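Quick one:
INPUT:
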């Protein structure tokens, strides 16, 4: 994950990760 931009907040990261996880399940 070190290649991701680090200017995002924790809440934004949780939102992004939740979307990514949902996409992987499908």
């Amino acid at each position: 994950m070190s290649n991701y931009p680090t200017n995002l907040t924790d809440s934004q990261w949780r939102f992004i990760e939740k979307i990514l996880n949902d996409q992987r399940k499908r």
